């Protein structure tokens, strides 16, 4: 793609060199690159299209990386990457060995924190700004947070704490769905623009300084004028929430007007206290399909630029889970569905429309969702919390204290378990097995195909008690399991039951185990497969069934520490197992971005990997 501006931008300093009348052309060029690249690579489109002008203004006003810009979630940093020297690599975004779809300090000095989870920016930015003040620095720290992320409790904890710190902190509220401060028409909007200009703050400072010099009555006049101004402002904006917390509130400002944003940011730098700048933006700005359906284009796979349609369409584990919950709700009025701002991703869109009184989108508040579910269960409802594995991590304390300890019957539908691919380190679902294994009174299923998924949900709803978790992967079931019939057993055995070589596994990679067993058989190596359907608790009979084996190979798509394989090995040792045990999993560390198939191959969890490990270690 031919570019006029981006090819010459290697750092924010180059953005500052542009003439003001060139900035809107730069914004248009950026949008063209965003749409073209995401259509090929997939990623977050609507949110990035909405912050183009804001990002340009930020790099015009501040001096990154001395001034530090902290992006909440980080899924809206694509323009930031383009303006900080990564245009030449932008076509590799979200690809293996390419640049990340989130901010990564290892990638650029302009990326301050690893990001991927919501509502963290104000806390981390406050820490930076406080350290800057302690060290006598004069640099600014900016946190950019969306109204969606502001539904997370951590953001409010940070806001409450930030106002007490007299540091150079600017919080930018990117409001693209709801209005935090309702205003009353043109007068309020006009005054908001005026009050955001640097000249306003300089005039205010000079006026206060002059009035305070008047003997006896100067400070009283200043206080009277301040209180009068506050009363008028309250009438116009009807909200002093942020100012009640101790922030200087500015806005709302048009988030697609670079001049207005720039003036507001320059004005915010003159305020001697934490500032909250409220801007209004449009998700998907500049791409008609994304503007009309921002939820669909929030995180999207490859798509056709001209039609807006995805390049492929198929069912998924998420869809099947959503359908089961939907059908169960029709028969059982106790069934409720809870999501943390992920109704589309977790397959609950139809449920939300059909049963709005039993559907609860709590916002980005996983901790609340879990405790809320426990409260619903206490009064006789049957709540299902559908959540991505990576986001369930945020509710660990609530799972222990508010659910497992209470013996409440709730169902955790854990989506995106295992490798998720291109979103990288912050989104891989590799920790849920480990932390669920440490919690008493929880039962965990890990189905390998759709029929097992339905069986697990049926058991979780009507057979099991207490807390039940069902973890399932992103994507579709394997072709060789489409006709597989799920059993009612905690475990099943396949292959040569007399073999003293055993392959143990569960979940998605069971399909590879079947393929590996067949290939090994053709090479004269017969193995037995032990498939775990329920991975917590492990049925003692599963251990007994392999206790006399010569060699056991355990494969799992999870971190080693706290894993099922680790637990199984311990149970074997308690029974006096004398044979060999090989555990293939993710040993330690965080897994970088790559396609799911590439990751399965890299960690020897696909068919070829299993065959190789068994032949080499046998």
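-> sequence recovered:
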């Amino acid at each position: 793609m031919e570019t006029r501006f981006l090819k010459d931008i290697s750092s924010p300093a180059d953005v500052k060199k542009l003439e003001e009348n060139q900035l809107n052309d730069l914004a248009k060029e950026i949008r063209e690159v965003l749409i073209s690249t995401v259509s090929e690579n997939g990623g977050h489109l609507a949110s990035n299209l909405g912050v183009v002008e804001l990002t340009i203004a930020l790099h015009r006003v501040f001096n990154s990386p001395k001034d530090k810009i902290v992006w909440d979630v980080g899924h809206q940093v694509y323009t930031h990457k383009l303006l900080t020297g990564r245009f030449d690599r932008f076509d590799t975004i979200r690809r293996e060995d390419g640049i990340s779809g989130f901010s990564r300090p290892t990638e650029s000095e302009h990326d301050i924190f690893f990001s991927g989870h919501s509502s963290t920016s104000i806390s981390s930015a406050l820490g930076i700004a406080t350290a800057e003040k302690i060290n006598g620095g004069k640099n600014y720290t900016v946190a950019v947070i969306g109204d969606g992320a502001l539904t997370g409790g951590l953001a409010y904890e940070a806001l409450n704490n930030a106002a007490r710190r007299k540091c150079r902190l600017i919080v930018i509220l990117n409001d693209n769905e709801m209005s935090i401060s309702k205003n009353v028409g043109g007068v309020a909007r006009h005054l908001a623009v005026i009050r955001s200009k640097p000249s306003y703050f300089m005039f205010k400072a000079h006026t206060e300084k002059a009035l305070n010099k008047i003997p006896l009555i100067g400070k009283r006049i200043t206080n009277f004028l301040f209180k009068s101004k506050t009363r008028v402002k309250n009438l116009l904006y009807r909200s002093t929430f942020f100012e009640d917390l101790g922030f200087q509130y500015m806005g709302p400002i048009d988030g697609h007007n670079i001049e207005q944003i720039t003036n507001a940011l320059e004005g915010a730098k003159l305020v001697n206290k934490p500032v909250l700048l409220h801007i209004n933006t449009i998700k998907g700005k500049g791409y008609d399909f994304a503007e009309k359906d921002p939820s669909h284009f929030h995180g999207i796979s490859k798509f056709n630029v001209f039609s807006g349609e995805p390049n492929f369409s198929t069912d998924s584990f998420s869809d099947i889970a959503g359908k089961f919950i939907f059908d169960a709700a029709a028969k059982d009025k106790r069934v409720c569905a809870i999501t943390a701002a992920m109704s589309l991703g977790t397959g609950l869109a139809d449920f939300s429309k059909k049963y709005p009184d039993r559907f609860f989108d709590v916002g980005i508040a996983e901790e609340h969702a879990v405790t809320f579910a426990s409260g619903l269960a206490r009064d006789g409802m049957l709540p299902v919390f559908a959540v991505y594995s990576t986001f369930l991590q945020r509710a660990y304390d609530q799972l222990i204290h508010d659910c497992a300890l209470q013996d409440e019957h709730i169902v955790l539908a854990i989506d995106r378990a295992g490798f998720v691919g291109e979103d990288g380190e912050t989104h891989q679902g590799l920790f849920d097995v480990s932390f669920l294994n440490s919690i008493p009174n929880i039962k965990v299923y890990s189905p390998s195909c759709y029929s097992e998924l339905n069986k697990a949900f049926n058991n979780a709803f009507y057979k099991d008690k207490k807390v039940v978790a069902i973890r399932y992967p992103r994507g579709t079931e394997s072709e060789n399991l489409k006709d597989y019939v799920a059993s009612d057993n905690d475990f099943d055995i396949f292959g040569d039951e007399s073999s003293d070589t055993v392959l143990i596994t569960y979940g998605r990679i069971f399909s590879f185990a079947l393929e590996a067993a067949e290939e090994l058989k053709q090479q004269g190596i017969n193995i037995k497969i032990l498939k775990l359907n329920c991975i917590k608790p492990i049925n003692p009979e599963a251990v007994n069934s392999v206790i006399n084996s010569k060699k056991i190979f355990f494969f799992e798509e999870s971190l080693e520490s706290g894993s099922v394989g680790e637990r199984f090995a311990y149970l074997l040792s308690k029974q006096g197992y004398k044979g060999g045990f090989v555990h293939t999993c993710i040993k330690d560390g965080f897994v970088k971005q790559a396609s799911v198939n590439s990751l399965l191959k890299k960690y020897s969890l696909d068919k070829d990997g299993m065959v190789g490990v068994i032949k080499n270690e046998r």
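The first helix runs from residue 12 to 17.
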